[in-house]
Design brief:
The chain is mainly alpha-helical. It has five helices and no strands. It folds into two domains: 44 residues, no CATH class; 40 residues, no CATH class.
Length: 86
């Protein structure tokens, strides 16, 4: 993939991005392509993780990721992983 120099405004870039007019293609087309692939391929191994889901319920998302990876973590292990020391 070749990098493209962009000289427009952030607003113009965001408008192109959400309307699928971005030079690399739009996010929504990319995401719907993956969703269709996953629906048609039960053996596909893809785990979608988002910042929003992590922010909303970090422990639950870590447990979901662990299960996807074939790891059965106890509540204590998940609590230890998700403990935040600020």
């Amino acid at each position: 993939m070749e990098w493209v120099q962009y000289n427009g405004s952030l607003d113009a870039m965001l408008d192109a991005f959400v309307s699928d007019q971005h030079v690399y293609g739009g996010y929504f087309n990319w995401y719907s392509g993956w969703a269709k692939h996953l629906e048609s391929s039960p053996l596909a191994k893809v785990h979608f993780l988002s910042y929003e889901k992590l922010k909303h319920n970090f422990s639950e998302e870590i447990a979901s990721l662990a299960m996807f990876l074939g790891k059965n973590l106890s509540a204590e292990q998940i609590a230890k992983i998700t403990r935040v020391n600020i």
